[in-house]
Specification:
The protein is built from six helices and eight strands, in the order αβααβαβββββαβα. The chain is elongated and about 85 Å long. It is 36% helix and 21% strand. The strands form three sheets. A four-stranded antiparallel beta sheet has the order 3-4-5-6, with no helix packed on it. The protein has a two-stranded parallel ribbon with strand order 1-2.
Length: 183
């Protein structure tokens, strides 16, 4: 506290606030000391960031309650995650998001939210270029739909799928050349 008063820092990082648990007699004293410490730092005009080593055996609900923001970091054998469970006075994207620590620092990969990528959709058939098949499909498969070609090996699933792709590519090619001619 003397150093905070003397240096008057703008920001203070405490790693880890959990250590205060080991120098207090009980949970009540821990909460009381942490709250007094945070109030003192905020009274000095500083921003406080601190860490906590929580676990299912020793949760840190009391520290979460005292905080304006809670950022949760997690690790499994296959990935690291970051999630925000509390951030007062603002909206935030809930859930766990992928996190990578690498030679250039930290990268976060937020979950994709389908509702954030809405666009107007006008269904239209995408023909295969095979008249009899397009007639059976009432013009072709529908844009924006998921279509499964199924059957045993060698029946032509890849060939028919590629036929739709080839036809779509040739339509785009014709569209591009028409646009260029108009310019």
């Amino acid at each position: 506290m003397d150093q905070v008063t003397k240096l008057k820092p703008d920001r203070i990082f405490v790693d880890s606030m959990t250590q205060f648990r080991y120098i207090t007699a009980d949970t009540f004293q821990f909460r009381k000391q942490v709250l007094a410490f945070i109030r003192f730092i905020l009274g000095q005009g500083a921003t406080v960031v601190f860490t906590s080593e929580c676990s299912p055996e020793e949760p840190d609900y009391d520290l979460q309650f005292m905080s304006d923001g809670v950022i949760n970091l997690g690790i499994t054998p296959t990935r690291r995650t970051v999630g925000i469970s509390k951030f007062r006075s603002s909206g935030f994207q809930a859930g766990n998001h992928s996190l990578r620590l690498g030679p250039k620092g930290m990268s976060v990969f937020p979950k994709l939210l389908p509702e954030a990528y809405k666009r107007n959709f006008q269904p239209e058939p995408l023909p295969s270029g095979i008249p009899a098949l397009d007639k059976m499909l009432r013009g072709g498969i529908e844009r924006g739909m998921v279509t499964l070609f199924r059957g045993p090996s060698g029946v032509g699933k890849t060939t028919i799928g590629l036929q739709f792709m080839k036809e779509a590519a040739s339509r785009m090619e014709r569209l591009s050349s028409l646009l260029l001619k108009k310019m």
